[in-house]
Input
Amino acid sequence: MTDRLCPRDEADVVEAVRWAVSESRPLEVAGTGTRRALGRATQEAVTLELAGLSGVTLYEPAELVLSARAGTPLAEIEAMLGEARQMMAFEPMDHGPLLGQKAGQGTLGGLMALNLAGPRRPSAGAARDHALGLRAVSGRGEAFKAGGRVVKNVTGYDLPRGLAGSYGTLVAYTELTIKVLPRPETVETLLIRGLDDPAAARAMSEAVGSYYDVSGAAHVPAEVAARIPALAGLGGPVTALRLEGVRPSIRHRREKLEMMLAGRGALATLEEAGSLAFWTAVRDALPFALEEGARLDAAKALWKVSTAPMHGPVLGAAARGLGASVFYDWAGGLVWIEMPGPDPQAAAIRAALAPGGGHATLLRAGTTTRATVEVFQPLDPVTGQLVRRMKDSFDPGRILNPGRLYAGV
Amino acid sequence: MSGNATSGIVMPEPNADVIARRAEIVAAMRAIVPGEGVIDAVNEMRPFETDGLTAYKQLPLAVVLPSTTEQVSRILAYCHRNGIRVVPRGAGTGLSGGALPLADAILLGMGKFNRILDIDFDNRTVTAQPGVTNLGITTAVAHAGFYYAPDPSSQIACTIGGNVAENSGGVHCLKYGLTTNNVMGVELVLITGEVMRIGGKHLDSGGLDLLGILVGSEGLLGVVTEVTVRILKKPETARAVLVGFPSSEAAGECVARIIGAGIIPGGMEMMDRLAIHAAEAFVKVGYPLDVEALLIVELDGPEAEVHHLIERVAQIASELGCITLRASNSEEERAAFWAGRKAAFPAVGRISPDYLCMDGTIPRKALPLVLARMEELARQHGLQCANVFHAGDGNLHPLILYDASKPGELEAAERFGADILLLCVEVGGVLTGEHGVGIEKRDLMPSMFDETDLAHQQRLKCAFDPDSLLNPGKVFPQLHRCAELGRMHVSRGQLPFPNIPRF
Ligand SMILES: Cc1cc2nc3c(=O)[nH]c(=O)nc-3n(C[C@H](O)[C@H](O)[C@H](O)COP(=O)(O)OP(=O)(O)OC[C@H]3O[C@@H](n4cnc5c(N)ncnc54)[C@H](O)[C@@H]3O)c2cc1C
Output
């Protein structure tokens, strides 16, 4: 039976971790536990559930800053930002649907621990790029803070950024401060139809390398496009370029891009509503979503791969050769690969990635698979040792999510 | 510290044993870096004895100028085996003393790493050696209309390696981010001599964010031997508006309203009366002299957007009762608006024999309060202070005017500077926005961080450099032994069962 410890405040978190250290009892660190299926499979008897540390503690729209306790639901934060026409510009993806769960769950601590991002990643960054400050409890059972509440800050090591994406293996966050930004007034999407993957990568590269501030560049091959309702009726592969901002600017940029890309393929446009739906589908990889409650060990294995954008289609072709379905975000630099079955065929995927460099994360697989296949990109020996020493620094007793990222960490 | 008896900053005690072995160490260095790459003559080491924080000077044990990663690796491995300290150095423009030598340390100058290794327009990256200047990267891609966004005012001289170490900013980082948001990968040599690569032409790390930790680590964690950055297309259009206000409050309010309207300008700079007058006297670009505060707001991006937004900014400024309002209508005019701001440091250098450049960040809304308190402090310390200010992100650069030849003035300036930084912390800001802690702000760290906070940072150093050989005496007010930092203070069975809700 799993025991759940539900601290009410930071002092409780300190007490819980100290107890775990003294008893040598590893803790599963969780917000509400909805992202348990991400990362290597581990089995801790005790869960430290941070959902009780909830509430926005500071929001100053004119200062573009928001602080909230780590367990604050993202939905609450997004609603608050929406009222002031602001947003988390990194467009955090929602893993729920991919894992057979409801959309709209998740907490701020989880967002930072997973370093979430979305289609705006190449231009606006990931959660790490918007992390300003933190309070946390390390595996030593000590509460500490780092960073601050201002954007320009180089006082000491950049722990708010450095700890982003650490999957709860170094600290349990108790409070986070992030930078927020104004929401664009409106959005439109320019679609190019009929391109194959390499031609699409080239078109996307030219578009994001143009003057015209393209804030999303995705390519969806035909069989995947058919699963996106916002593209209904188009048929065939679709390459999408997102334009955000004030209306006169969007019109100007769309016209310029249309001229630049004339002759590549038939052009079409998605207006605001269609754009919002389409980019949500891209952000959350909805073409590969599962039915709510689906069993992961029976589901098709899913990879999320970050690589040099021009290597995207090369990797995509190799994956399709293995029977996978793929689509591309980040102008080709993010490749979503849905394998034909539960077998992730890790060796083949990683071999196809190698020439372009990058990292392949096994985002969805059954528990047994995630216990035997390296979920994250394997580390070279020097980096592996360094990462181990970092674990020693923050969590020498291997109390916080041990093994969730790498064995022994 | 030798060379500056007046300074209150204590550097780590030099290791007499290492100094006694100097000849042997220099010979070992010559075996690794042949020819002119090792400098041990005092007069030839002089150019390296200080950085941009010129009040502090110290000759190193020897200067070593490697030109390959392999040499760096062998140098560090030797130093590691023999317990010798190492201070990395780029161009030496740092303003916080980060590259200040130590008497018992090798000064590792990275200036010979000056080649661009790869330009990849398709993937929009440049890979450069760390000694390439910041502007050198932009210059290498400018023919195709691209640029590297972070633009410190020192960009013609400072190196990309130094930028990575300091997480440098510039006037455009409000919209385009700091160094850390623009660096995609590095090659790093650890103090053991081990070489590792972090990141590359892809985004994010898919594991621990070592790059995030490394950027801004002030040369304390490793020596950077290669850097991959993202490049951006130069905006189609850029236009600036010059706005003068009768009070700094009104200027501060203008900044808040522009951002409140959802506009993120490419740059938004502010100058106070003293800075405006100094700049105008120097470059004569027609800055208004009857205003208390001057804002330069630059909008960049697609043409239609810039024209649209410039109208909105002008409207906001008018509503707030600005005295001057001019929008640039040509590149020359835009450059003129910036010329004064960009020359602000040397301009102040003309009206005062010496000045100290401070670098705190505050929440923007605290600006009027901070400016008022700074005037009070100026009176108290009997010194003048000119202010230039990255207004968009709350990063202040007070320039404290002093005369080092007058006894006691440097100390007064330093005390004034410390008071300003403590004021920044008091209002919710931080000690340094982009120049780094170095030695300059080292002893103020406890005003922002308690012992536990600092211990968590220093243990990170232990993971990279457990013997504290890389750039010791910088950033942290006290050197702690890693063994002592690593000790756990919780022991088995001593704590009660947690008294927290469980299910
Ligand atoms: C007139 C003037 C204007 C300036 N304007 C700005 C500005 O607008 N914005 C801003 O942010 N800064 C500014 N600076 C500060 C300075 O230019 C930056 O901090 C710059 O990044 C330093 O680069 P550098 O090559 O001179 O580094 P150095 O001063 O040589 O070194 C700085 C630090 O980096 C470390 N280091 C250098 N190279 C390496 C390497 N390869 N590997 C590991 N560590 C290394 C050193 O140990 C040291 O701690 C200005 C300075 C001056 C003099």
